[in-house]
Design goal:
By secondary structure, the protein is α/β, with parallel strands linked by helices. The protein has 2 domains: 30 residues, no CATH class; 183 residues, Rossmann fold (3-Layer(aba) Sandwich). It has 7 helices and 9 strands, in the order E-E-H-E-E-H-H-E-H-H-E-H-E-E-H-E. Strand 8, helix 7 and strand 9 form a beta-alpha-beta unit. Helix 3 packs across helix 5. The chain is globular, with a radius of gyration of 17 Å. The structure holds zinc ion. Zinc ion binds next to helix 1.
């Protein structure tokens, strides 16, 4: 298939493009997680209602080309990587047999949105929506509290306290189908957990998906 667009990862135009914006060779080298190595809210899930799935869909480890491209989105001022990563996330969702009704990105606080120019989770959600032909509702959740970047949080408990009351529902959503909550990276899981807990008030199934996480990543010894 010749898409006319260069591979996002090696920057070459290839006739061997098997997915949007990624060539077969680069696809084969991405750090896919093993199906058996599941990501979840783990111990954070104590107060989640049953209609929120504790398991988070996550196709990649946060390393290599995936990490580089997520960092480009977060700090490099370009949302272009979402065009390759969004469809790969959609594939992971569809493989689990999840049929989302609406897609909701984890919002940024408006101050951070202003300084960054766009919300990386929203761009990924837009590409998921396009791939799955489902509507994106970026208005449904708002971030009312500005929390410090994850890297500055002291520990899991501290991070959890900071982020737990950061989100509010800001609209209605008709229907009873699954709400697909989208973020870029799961580190401690606290942000996603806090957002999922708020979405649970809609009384419909909530399923979270992130692009990457190192939760449960096997330790590979240095050679
Ligand atoms: Zn390539």
């Amino acid at each position: 298939m010749l898409t006319g667009a260069a591979c996002l990862f090696c920057k070459r135009r290839s006739r061997d493009t098997v997915r949007p914006y990624i060539c077969r060779s680069c696809l084969s080298r991405l750090p896919f997680r093993r199906q058996s190595n599941r990501v979840s809210f783990q111990s954070l899930a104590l107060t989640l209602p049953d209609h929120v799935n504790r398991e988070v869909i996550c196709p990649f480890y946060y390393t290599g080309a995936i990490r580089e491209n997520l960092l480009i989105m977060k700090f490099g001022g370009s949302w272009h990587p979402a065009r390759a990563l969004g469809p790969l996330m959609a594939e992971a969702v569809l493989r689990r047999g999840i049929c989302a009704d609406i897609i909701v990105p984890v919002p940024l606080h408006k101050k951070r949105l202003q300084s960054r120019g766009f919300n990386q989770a929203e761009r990924l959600a837009a590409m998921l929506g396009r791939t799955m032909s489902r509507p994106v509702r970026a208005d449904l959740l708002v971030r009312t509290l500005e929390t410090p970047p994850q890297s500055e949080a002291p520990d899991l408990a501290g991070r959890f306290r900071q982020v737990l009351s950061a989100f509010e529902l800001s609209g209605e959503a008709d229907g009873t189908g699954t709400v697909l909550l989208v973020d870029d990276v799961l580190t401690t899981g606290a942000t996603l957990y806090a957002a999922a807990r708020v979405l649970a008030a809609l009384n419909r199934p909530v399923q979270a998906v992130v692009c990457a996480s190192n939760q449960g990543k096997p330790v590979i010894p240095d050679r």
